[in-house]
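pasting for the record
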Amino acid sequence: MTATPPNLSGTELSGTELSGTELSGTEPQAADRDSDVGEGVTRPLTEAIAEAERLIAAADFAETEQDLAEGFDYLAGSIAAIIQLGRARSISHPSFVTSTGPATKMGLDNPDTLYYHADVEAGATYRVRGKRGTTADLSFQVLRGDYTATNVPGGDDAFDDRRITIGADGSFEITFGPALDEPRADYFVLGEGASMLAVREVYSDWNAHKGEIAIERVDTVGSAPPEPTLERVRRRYATAGKMLLGRINTWFNFPTWFYLDEPVNTFTAPRLTPGGLSTQYSAVGHYRLADNEAMVITVPKSDAPYQGFQLGSMWYISLDYINHQTSLNTAQAQADPDGMIRMVVSARNPGVANWIETTGRRQGILQFRWQRVDTPIAADQGPTAQVIDLDDLPTHLPYAAHNRIDETGWAQRIAARQRSFADRMLG
């Protein structure tokens, strides 16, 4: 993701389960309660869903029925995510939860990344324990309630695992908390307004193994959080409604802010990702292609531990990257003998290994990322793009014979994606 997940801080929600459907034997029976007590509890959320539906239906970039279908499916995922995150969160007893995934997409989620976050607050102290997996990158970022970095002097707000001590078995323990009089190894300061700890684990090889991670708040570990009250549950629904509309409105506008002011079918030069890590660069753009057109993207294969490309829809979410090849990183892409990676973005299958499927979308988002870099990504290391007639493709691929793939080979590529992703989710 090029932006951080919606923050759940600043609300008065508890992280305990919302268990309004489970009545204990000591709870008053319905006839003994004031009939008005429980009325309207869910109304703020249902009203927000209705308003979100209107926003989706009126989106000016929704040109086809497929666009609208995707928009309403995106809304369903957003509703599911908001409810799940609201019920799972806890300031007093935090745990890591999945910020976004295949069923709850947002913010141009990276197909190569697992996203987690936990609630924190400045002034408290937290221990984070884990075991490093074999993935390409593991990074940490402390965020404020407005989804921006806390700007702690020394860069404690965003860093990767090269700044922490990792044992021979991959284990680590780091602490986040208030500023200390003397710096301490594996201790990171929570800046003013800190409200979320975001963690990203990034794959290059999809057959790599993810790590383990857990968080505990030092002054509450060993105790239990309070049980939910009706008033707290009311606030959850009200906050969930606000979060849903904030999520929809934010990502509606994000492409306009950072993508759509660029000429169509071009890329920006590589640049530090706005709001991201100091070791992450990106090059972005947006495409519009006719059915008979293709975009040939040429980019040098980087020495960076992670280099990845993906398409996104105008709803600013990833396309189906499990059952279609809508993304490629350097571990998956075929490199030509001259060290260049040439990808072909098109609706129709051009019969090349590095085909990037638009899955029928005439327009969408283009995104490159380089992560865990030691030096800046220069302009000549970035991508170039050329739009051509698809039938003329062989004349634009200097190693066309090297790039070809048949139907059996393509099915094998998709099967490998499906199996590797299934292992990632369960591993």
